[in-house]
Amino acid sequence: xxxxxFEKVRKAFGQAVAVEGLDLSIDxxxxxxxxxxxxCGKTTTLRMLAGLEFPTSGTISIGDRVxxxxxxxxxxxxMVFQSYALYPHMSVGENIAxxxxxxxxxxxxxxxxxxxVARTLQLEHLLARKPRQxxxxxxxxxxxxxxxVRNPQVFLLDEPLSxxxxxxxxxxxxxxIELHRTVxxxxxxxxxxxxxxxxxxxxxxxxxxxxxxQYAPPREVYDRPANLFVAGFIGTPSMNVLFGELVGEGPRxxxxxxxxxxxxxxxxxxxxxxRVALGVRPEDVLLGAGPLEAxxxxxxxxxxxxxxxxxxxxxxxxxxxxxxxxxxxxESVPYDLRxxxxxxxxxxxxxxxxxxxxxxxxxxxx
Length: 366
Ligand code: ATP
Known about the structure:
It is a single chain. The chain is an alpha+beta fold. It has two domains: 4-226, P-loop containing nucleotide triphosphate hydrolases (Rossmann fold, 3-Layer(aba) Sandwich), CATH 3.40.50; 237-359, CATH 2.40.50.140. It has helices spanning 42-50, 92-102, 107-120, 136-148, 166-183, 194-200, 218-223, 228-233, and strands at 4-13, 16-26, 31-35, 57-62, 65-66, 77-80, 154-158, 186-191, 203-208, 211-216, 240-247, 254-256, 260-266, 275-280, 285-301, 306-312, 315-321, 332-337, 343-346, 352-353, 355-357, 361-362. Strands 11, 12, 13, 14, 19, 20, 21 and 22 form an eight-stranded antiparallel sheet that branches. The protein has a six-stranded mixed sheet with strand order 6-7-8-3-9-10, sandwiched between helices. It has a four-stranded antiparallel sheet with strand order 2-1-4-5, with helices on one face. The longest helix is centred in the middle third of the chain and has 18 residues, at 166-183. The relative contact order is 0.12. Bound molecules: adenosine-5'-triphosphate (ATP). Adenosine-5'-triphosphate (ATP) binds next to strand 2 and helix 1.
């Protein structure tokens, strides 16, 4: 069983800390995405697991073996990179067979294995072609084939789809999900694309500036973001944030923001500074009726939905509606918030607060 574990892992390049205090446990057979903006440390994390970088401190293990000092070739892993660099002078079949040849696997066994992998990836009819005679997606599949052929326990994928166009990416996402199901091994997948992380993985590790922010299944990361950073990073358009103040005590507590007042009951201690951030996903701003009022600033039809930017006192709110919504810029519209799906964060520490909300009213009416 190839459970992957990072314990208190730190990686510094001179003064620059790329990864700090990383504790992460990846179950055997699961698909985990390392997600975060450029420079957050996800590639360094993957490269440490591959053995291409050594941790400054901490322990990395695969199964029950600590691999800190194990050479990359002895870790039973395979890595697929963004630039999949196939050998241009070799055919597809030879490219896939190459890792086996390097390990001295006899020809007959090689050919059998290549065929099996080509079947899994639907490359059988392309085995005689050279890489330049393939589409980007096909080339990416050959790169996957080269990783698969070795039967590794852990697959490491570093932004493998980022060179592909949008349509092909969507197609390859589905293929990777299918591939993971077929081979049943552990996949660790680096991406800065939240859609890839959300659609493919069992769990997402969201990183920021070298520090793990949240490690949870996609739905939980979306529904219960651990802090304001995760809340803003996951979801398109991003979650709306209204800053306000907590007033009152106990069951009579309220959030007061320029746009609204909202009854709230906070589980545990209310933040000491009393500054809070109210998080509202675009789909939880309900247009058309309600006690609140906004002015339409922008209407952006995308074809299958319309993104609407509203001006509200003290800021703006983004919401989404159907493709046929008829709104004029400058028009005043009533709206409501879906109380059961709101989020609350400490305005200073930015950490999530567990809370229940009542119905919002306009600030002036409170
Ligand atoms: P990207 O999506 O841009 O690849 P990332 O999240 O994968 O970003 P890393 O490549 O892991 O981020 O880099 C994390 C931090 O460590 C960055 O600040 C980067 O500049 C730094 N870093 C990475 N490799 C080195 C190196 N070899 N020497 C010095 N600093 C490095």
